[in-house]
Amino acid sequence: MPLWKFVDEVRFFHGIKPKAFREDRRATSYIVVVGDWDNTINEGHEQTFNVSRFYFYPLYEGTQKSHLDLFAHDLAIIEVDGPGIRFDEWTQPICLPPRDFTYQTGRKCVVSGWGSMGL
């Protein structure tokens, strides 16, 4: 059974710079690490997965035309291999609105990550 990870801010996916990610979208070139507080050390609660497939938002171009569209359409769903992500103190799913939530046309949505890539 596939396991999915929602990723906002595709350009910073596992520390990959935008140009490198645009040039190499092969799933086998990347791994997903969840539950990582400080990526400069192994803390013992990280979970690492190989990537099976990427599903990019259809309007994502992976380019920056101006500083205004730096975050535009910058998200993906990633299918990872393995038995699945174990939710615990360090790893939790994102919160999504209920199915009956009404979105207003034209409203901008911003999703923010948390933490530091240590770059």
CATH top level is Mainly Beta
Based on the structure given, which CATH architecture is correct? Answer: Beta Barrel
CATH topology: Thrombin, subunit H
- State the shape: globular
The whole-angstrom Rg is 15 Å
The strand order across the widest sheet is 1-4-3-2
InterPro entries: Peptidase_S1_PA (IPR009003), Peptidase_S1_PA_chymotrypsin (IPR043504), Trypsin_dom (IPR001254)
Pfam families: Trypsin
Protein name: Peptidase S1 domain-containing protein
Organism: Ancylostoma duodenale
Structural description of this entry:
- This is Peptidase S1 domain-containing protein.
- InterPro entries: Peptidase_S1_PA, Peptidase_S1_PA_chymotrypsin, Trypsin_dom.
- It comes from Ancylostoma duodenale.
- GO terms for molecular function: serine-type endopeptidase activity.
- The chain has 119 residues and is mostly beta strands.
- The chain has a single domain, classed as Thrombin, subunit H, CATH 2.40.10.
- It is 5% helix and 22% strand.
- The chain is built from 1 helix and 4 strands, in the order E-H-E-E-E.
- The chain has a 4-stranded antiparallel β-sheet, with no helix packed on it.
- The radius of gyration is 15 Å and the shape is globular.
- About 8% of the residues have low confidence.
Highlighted features:
119 residues; mainly beta; Thrombin, subunit H; four-stranded antiparallel β-sheet; 4 strands; 5% helix; 22% strand
